[in-house]
Design brief:
The complex is a heterodimer of chains A (113) and B (109).
Chain A: E1 4-7, E2 10-13, E3 19-25, E4 31-37, E5 44-51, E6 54-57, E7 64-66, E8 76-78, E9 87-94, E10 102-104, E11 108-112
Parallel strand pairs in A: 2-11
Antiparallel strand pairs in A: 1-3, 3-8, 4-5, 4-9, 5-6, 7-8, 9-10, 9-11
Chain B: E1 3-5, E2 9-13, E3 18-25, E4 32-37, E5 44-49, E6 53-57, E7 60-65, E8 70-75, E9 84-91, E10 97-99, E11 103-108
Parallel strand pairs in B: 2-11
Antiparallel strand pairs in B: 1-3, 3-8, 4-5, 4-9, 6-7, 7-8, 9-10, 9-11
Classes of the chains: A mainly beta (113), B mainly beta (109).
Chain lengths: 113, 109
């Protein structure tokens, strides 16, 4: 079945460590997105990519990095420069439907100890 | 600034009807989405409105008034599985999504 797979689902990190969250899709979508979700707040855009080998900063890109070497993959690295990284991270993709709806992965919950 | 307002939490009874409101102030408007998100899971698409009026899809309906910057999601014949957060999102003039904080809906038997 087509969909978006995020891994790991849960991740614990010590302060000062970089971690990479995986996002893979087999929907043949060009556009992919990373969002951060915190309690009591709307989803906030970290990075997005419209095509392979190109990506743009979102509203809260500081302390994060991404790559888009393949259409199917859009990994997110949370660096030690991110001051408050504990959050629920959601990856999404968008196809060519008129509505432009997003398809989300199951999410990755990162906890910094 | 851009802003989307939704009630934080609502409670309703199984079998009843509930209306979740969303008001928005954004730089331009190119459509409004409603998503459902169960705790700890991914949001799933419910509806999309770009023109004024009511869109009905089974037990769920969504209404839009662009002149008032207002939308609502109507859920009928509530079931326990409808307990979830409901997210409102607006596509602005740059086609970027602005998200509300979500409304947590609690269904009681």
């Amino acid at each position: 079945d087509g969909g978006i797979t995020q891994s790991p689902k849960y991740l614990f990190r010590k302060e000062g460590q970089n971690v990479t969250l995986s996002c893979e899709q087999n929907l043949n979508h060009d556009a992919m997105y990373w969002y951060r979700q915190d309690p009591g707040q709307g989803l906030r855009l970290i990075y997005y990519s419209q095509i392979v080998n190109d990506f743009q900063k979102g509203d809260i890109a500081e302390g994060y990095s991404v790559s888009r070497e393949k259409k199917e993959s859009f990994p997110l690295t949370v660096t030690s420069a991110q001051k408050n990284p504990t959050a629920f991270y959601l990856c999404a993709s968008k196809g060519m439907l008129v509505t432009g709806e997003l398809f989300f992965g199951e999410g990755s919950r990162l906890t910094v100890l | 600034g851009q802003n989307i307002d939704q009630p934080t939490e609502m409670t309703a009874t199984e079998g009843a009807i509930v209306q979740i409101n969303c008001t928005y102030q954004t730089s331009g408007f190119n459509g409004l989405f409603w998503y459902q998100q169960h705790a700890g899971e991914a949001p799933t698409f419910l509806s999309y409105n770009v023109l004024d009026g009511l869109e009905e899809k089974g037990r769920f309906s969504s209404f839009l008034s662009r002149s008032k910057g207002y939308s609502y999601l109507l859920l009928k014949e509530l079931q326990m599985k409808d307990s979830a957060s409901y997210l409102c999102a607006v596509k602005d003039s740059n086609y970027q999504l602005i998200w509300g904080a979500g409304t947590k809906l609690i269904i009681k038997p």
